[in-house]
Design a protein that fits this description.
The complex is a heterodimer of chains A (254) and B (322).
Chain A: E1 4-15, E2 18-29, E3 33-37, H1 44-52, E4 59-64, E5 67-68, H2 74-79, E6 82-85, H3 97-106, H4 123-136, H5 151-164, E7 169-173, H6 181-195, E8 199-203, H7 207-213, E9 216-221, E10 224-230, H8 231-236, H9 238-245
Parallel strand pairs in A: 3-8, 3-9, 6-7, 7-8
Antiparallel strand pairs in A: 1-2, 1-4, 4-5, 9-10
Chain B: H1 4-24, H2 27-53, H3 61-74, H4 83-105, H5 110-130, E1 140-141, E2 148-150, E3 153-156, H6 161-183, H7 186-203, H8 208-234, E4 236-237, H9 244-257, H10 263-279, H11 282-285, H12 292-306, H13 313-321
Classes of the chains: A alpha/beta (254), B mainly alpha (322).
């Protein structure tokens, strides 16, 4: 049995009367990809925001490393080893590819009062940035401005920035959004490789990709968990088939 | 690197010209140039906030004025204060004021930040205007400039017009180099990151608040240095130096010169004050001189419309089009 590193219990987030996430519990295990699927508006991104600290839950707990993360600031959660990528590409466009990653890696050694540390001085920061770029396959593009990258490369950089902070848990919010089939294959292979040493939560609409990489699946509808289990269990579940997956091949019905 | 040598050569040439100026310039102009350089330090300090962190303050005069008042209150009635004690005291007061107000104002952003910084500056204005602390609207006179002594030996005679000028020039150059260095550091890169996308910086694990507070304190302290020098030069302080006119003026200098470049702030200070002085010169403009604010206003509008990157953007504009 894989080691559970993050356990969310009964998470609820209300916006006024609307429960965007309602009593959701989920576990992320080291060495596994846990896919979160569901139609638009099901609460997947809100759940990610709760786990990353971008939003504070109305109630519920997030157990990680002996702490309850619920309501902690995003920078705190990030430093504890939970990295996230964004659905909308969220990189520093004016900076070079390497600068983006270096800035991410540098976040692990913050000393705002040391005004004189040169930006290029830290060997280990540069090493972490270089390593992250090599892992996602952008090693040859490090001096290119982020704004000059193709859409697919920007998505890769998005993941590289997350990796440069050396997280244990990866929250990937639609990493394949807007990618061509070839680029998608690259990212899927990347996620598979990363899952060996990370606990990955993957939000994705591409069902082929999901079934290719996911060890476990959670299906969300209207802020609630409809079903959760291994890929086979979820695929076989009559409720899921009826409510969401449509035909047995798993075409997305949004 | 993008040809840093040309910029360095230009800056060194300007520094040399400025250094030689008191040798042939008339006393009035030497004093005016010193005033401009003091305002350039003030403008650079504000550029740290506006240009590098995206925080538009309309209360930067608070630090400028606070420092001047600390010097005036600290100075003995008719004797010269020591620079070694009065300067750290004035700058320390600004750093503490920045730390305390920063904890509050940095929780806001955008137009709220403008309003809250303005509110704190106005509070300080009334503290010095309406309490016995400040000497009312007449202010306080400083009868002697601070002494720079090592033991019994006077190192610099700041009462001397030329010496004071070089002292200010040296400090302006030092502040410029210091900030260049700071902005090239990890700290500077993080600031630009926060300005570009604070949300993402926090998601990457940056305590953006701590960075903004450090920057706010640095900015306030340097504004205090400018205020200290200004109080020293004019020989008196009054509540006007804390007013929102002063805050607005320095903000216009930064915008005029070009935000986020440092040398733009220096350029903005030079152009703003020299235009102000020449447009209000009756010998040159006769009866129109009374309406110098109108002409200055039109000039600022023209720059804002035609040069969105300010006067510092002129060089790049020529590179691209010429």
């Amino acid at each position: 049995m894989a080691e559970t590193v993050l356990r969310a219990e009964h998470l609820t987030k209300r916006f006024g009367g609307l429960a965007a996430v309602n009593d959701v519990s989920l576990e992320l295990c080291l060495g596994q990809v846990h896919a979160l699927i569901g139609p638009n508006g099901a609460g997947k991104s809100t759940l990610t925001n709760l786990l990353s600290g971008d939003l504070a839950p109305t109630s519920g707990h997030i157990h990680y490393a002996g702490l309850d993360l619920a309501g902690l600031a995003p920078e705190r959660i990030s430093r504890l080893g939970i990295g996230r990528s964004y659905q909308k590409t969220n990189i520093f466009l004016p900076f070079s590819v390497f600068e983006n990653c270096r800035l991410a890696a540098q976040s692990r050694r913050q000393r705002p009062w040391r005004l004189f540390n040169s930006a290029l001085g830290f060997g280990d920061v540069n090493a972490a940035a270089t390593e992250a770029l090599d892992v996602v396959g952008l090693g040859g593009r490090r001096e290119v401005k982020a704004s000059a990258l193709s859409h697919g490369e920007q998505r890769q950089l998005e993941i590289a920035m997350c990796l440069a902070t050396r997280p244990q848990v990866l929250l990937l919010d639609e990493p394949l959004a807007g990618m061509g089939p070839q680029e998608s294959q690259t990212i899927i292979a990347l996620i598979q490789r990363l899952s060996a040493s990370h606990a990955v939560m993957l939000i994705e609409h591409d069902m082929d990709a999901v079934f290719a990489v996911a060890h476990r699946l959670t299906v969300m509808v209207n802020g609630e968990v409809l079903a959760s289990g291994t890929a086979e269990e979820v695929r076989a579940s009559p409720i899921v088939q009826q409510a969401y997956l449509g035909d047995e091949h798993g075409a997305l019905d949004v | 690197m993008r040809s840093p040598t040309r910029l360095t050569v230009v800056l060194l040439a300007i520094l040399l010209l400025l250094a030689l100026f008191p040798l042939f310039g008339e006393k009035f102009y030497v004093q005016l140039a010193a005033k401009v350089m003091i305002m350039a330090i003030f403008a650079m300090s504000l550029d740290l906030l506006v240009g590098y962190t995206g925080l538009i303050s309309l209360g930067h005069a608070a630090f400028f004025g606070l420092s001047g008042y600390v010097l005036a209150r600290f100075a003995p009635q008719y004797a010269a204060p020591s620079l070694w004690t009065s300067l750290p005291l004035a700058l320390g007061a600004c750093a503490i004021f920045a730390a305390v107000t920063g904890l509050l104002v940095l929780r806001t952003s955008g137009v709220y930040f403008i309003m809250v910084t303005l509110a704190f500056a106005q509070m300080l204005f009334f503290v010095f205007h309406d309490t016995p602390l400040g000497g009312g609207s007449d202010g306080i006179y400083l009868y002697a400039k601070p002494e720079v002594k090592l033991g019994e030996v006077a190192l610099l005679d700041l009462e001397d017009n030329q010496v004071f000028y070089w002292f200010v020039l040296g400090l302006m150059a030092a502040v410029y180099l210091f900030l260049r260095y700071v902005l090239a550091s990890n700290f500077g890169r993080a600031l630009v990151g926060i300005k570009t996308n604070e949300h993402r910086m926090r998601a990457l694990g940056y305590s953006s608040f701590r960075y903004k507070l450090a920057n706010y304190m640095l900015s306030g302290t340097l504004a205090g240095l400018a205020g200290y020098l200004a109080a020293m030069q004019f020989g008196f302080v009054n509540p006007e130096i804390l007013s929102w006119h002063t805050s607005g003026g320095v903000l216009v200098m930064v915008i005029l010169g070009g935000m986020g470049t440092l040398h733009g702030a220096v350029l903005g200070a030079f152009v703003f004050i020299l235009l102000q002085e020449s447009l209000s010169n009756q010998a040159w403009f006769g009866p129109l001189a009374k309406h110098w604010q109108l002409a200055l206003g039109l000039f600022i509008i023209a720059v804002a419309l035609l040069l969105p990157r300010g006067l510092a953007g002129l060089a790049q504009w020529r590179n691209r089009h010429g």
